[in-house]
Design brief:
The chain is of the alpha+beta class. The chain is built from 4 helices and 7 strands. Helices cover about 25% and strands about 40% of the residues.
Length: about 170
């Protein structure tokens, strides 16, 4: 079971803004080179985006369909990777203080991915999710910084003292 999580230093609404933009899918999903909506209004149930995967000179055209959407908190997708098969990807957003805990859960459904699913395959999915969540965090945090968010990095300690007038340490 390929479940991975990451704390992103923005509110859940900021993460949802990125997930809800089907044109940005390729910016955070590892392996995709471009994406655009093709059906419905992303991310409503039944909407789809088209994306391309490039493996050297080979190009695979694929589609991802929204199977379930709870606006702002949960997005369940079915990725169709052609000969590689289909996979279910659930993305959950949980408030964590002023930040967002993002949980990704992916399982192969049909095709080669389902038939070849084993511990080694799970390890590859975990590596992919780690990179994907890092990309998503960079996008969301960069966007927040561009919009004037001045939050400190996680783990940064501030100390108020009389000598510095209560400024950050």
């Amino acid at each position: 079971m390929a479940v991975r999580h990451r704390l992103i230093r923005v509110p859940p609404s900021a993460v949802w803004d990125v997930l809800a933009d089907g044109r940005r899918y390729a910016e955070w999903v590892v392996g995709t080179s471009e994406s655009h909506p093709v059906r419905g209004q992303w991310p409503r149930t039944g909407a789809a985006i088209h994306y391309e995967v490039r493996l050297g000179p080979a190009r695979l055209e694929n589609e991802t369909v929204v199977r379930h959407c709870e606006e702002g908190t949960r997005l369940e997708l079915e990725a169709n990777a052609g000969v590689l098969g289909t996979a279910r990807i659930a993305i959950e957003l949980r408030p964590w203080g002023e930040h967002c805990l993002v949980i990704v859960d992916e399982h192969p459904l049909m095709g080669a991915g389902g038939r070849l699913h084993n511990v080694g395959f799970e390890a590859l999915i975990q590596l992919r999710h780690r990179a994907m969540l890092a990309r998503l965090a960079r996008l969301c945090e960069a966007q927040a910084n561009q919009e004037g968010d001045t939050r400190r990095a996680l783990g940064q300690v501030t100390v108020a003292s009389d000598a510095d007038g209560g400024r950050d340490a």
